[in-house]
Amino acid sequence: MKKLFYLGILGFILFEIANVYFIMPIPGSQEMNSIGIAYFLTSWKWAFRGLFLILILLGLKSAFGSSKWLPAILTLVLGVVFYETNYEMAADTMFYQPKILTLKNKADNKIDKDRLIIGIENKGEAKAYPIQFLGYHHQVFDSIGGEPVIVTYCTVCRTGRVFEPIVNGQLETFRLVGMDHFNAMFEDKTTKSWWRQATGEACAGKLKGQFLPEFPSTQTTLDKWFELYPNSLVMQPDPTFQVEYDSISIYEKGRLTGKLTRRDTVSWQNKSWIAGISLGKESKAYDWIELQQKQIINDKIDNKPVVVLLADDKKSLFAFIRNDENQLLTIRNDTLSDGQTLYNLQGKSLTLDKPNLTRVNVYQEYWHSWKTFHGSDF
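^ thats the sequence. predicted structure below, dont judge the formating
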């Protein structure tokens, strides 16, 4: 009977390790296509735990009857492993949403205007969320123009995305559950499906294959955002997490040296920065270094004429669909021109009776992330 005790202990320990291995950035785990295994283990975790606990209880008396120290040590080891894997290594106990979400106007704002933000605008209301804060929280629930949004960021992929937290027509809440192929995953409360942050797609669970509606967003410096939306509100730091904010204060500049969040300064390496656009069935990536040199690139994606550009600060990123393929745009002093018509960085025509440009989402991202989730050309 004592063999049942040891089998239960060993099985319990291996299960708890496996339960986090496939969904956390542990060497080797993120390169595998193991999302199915990870979801299965998580979905049936109480069944596995119950089975191993029964084995432990069946062999408990016999194991302690023949030896006191070994069973006690193994039980202690199990306790340590259980605590570490379910609390110290669990994504939702490492990263929390703000306890207090505070947004202030330009006059009261305390955030450095050189900081990168994810900006959104709807029905005349604008808001900005510093990447420094999003990078820790991973997700911030808010509303804009009367509509709920979830502002997300994954530092390991360098992906900022904003979604409507609507699932099957109902407002949904999410928890950070881990990552797959180095991208953050969220679990919805109702169906327990897992959603990929880079695309908004449910990658496991009952709703696999569904997508969260994406909300238009822009990555700029706060200073540039204020130029475009002077009445914008800006997310302020939650004092509870100041230490965590400070630990990634230089992340947005690409100065962290850790394997997961560093920057490759040579083009088209895993951690190289790119600007990515998806239109229709086609996706395309632009080398960040080349974009900084040229500042503006006229191109075509999915047979649509596009333009991708950086503002004069060489940090604020924008993209538009041009009005026709013969329209070639240049930029000077943050004003776009085709030789006859002028446009601002919102794509609005500054020339009377000329149509606006159509904005499209464009993302700054690590190359490894973009090619994994978009299979992109470049």
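The chain has a mean pLDDT of 96.
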